[in-house]
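Internal tracking record. Fields below are filled automatically when a chain is submitted to the structure queue. Please do not edit lines marked as system-generated. If the sequence contains nonstandard residues, flag them in the REMARKS field before resubmitting.
Queue: standard
Priority: normal
Entity type: single polypeptide chain
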Amino acid sequence: MKGHIAYRPGSSLLHRLHPLVKAVWMLLVTLLIFWLRSPWLVLGILGLALLAFPLCRLPLHGVRGMRLVLTTAALLGVLQILFVHTGPVLFRLGPLVVTQDGVEAAAYVAGRFASVVLLSYLFVLTTDPNDLAYALMQAGLPFRYGFALVTALRLVPVFEQEGRIVYNAQLARGMQYDVRSPRRFLVLARQFFLPLLVSALGKVDALSVSMEGRCFGKYPTRTFMRQVHLARRDVAALALAAVAGLGALYWAILMR
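SYSTEM-GENERATED OUTPUT FOLLOWS
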């Protein structure tokens, strides 16, 4: 759905990569962001993450929460400029003193935060949850946990839609959600979540009956409707990840 943080089908290279290969890359780049202390490298990673969105034909402006992410990153950068006063002074504006270390710290902190969030967005938007669960199960994850993962991912948009229905229905009945009293907030929370809880219990009961009717868990192994295999591009991506990791390790040791 438009605006939701969910998988969006596509034919880009990132879409066609193996889910576990993408997970390895996301973990590697995230570790590099927190390990390397150069703000310019962090900004470079941020630039590549931003460039990946149009290359994958993903609308960056249409993703839910993107404005909050950018605002939070900018606020973190401003805080670094305001409170880090070491290094050469770049300019003064009344009581405001902007130093080189403050600007570099702002670029590093804001870029690190935005990069980690954007990498997570890229992984979610380009990875089919079913393929991810199948890949994890083929890698050794017990199929019961894989089924729980797929079920949870599929029920998230269902409960989100039901939450909207409950909210709009209560508004139509005159319920006011703009009351600032803590006690009233607890009452509203109970009245909002109780219908969702009843709906969730009903869905869980129906799902458990369906699973028992299909003899779920009777056999220690299971078959898969769809196989997720490693292709040549996945092997090349893993090799590139290993080279990038070793290169970053060598560079960090050399800089020390």
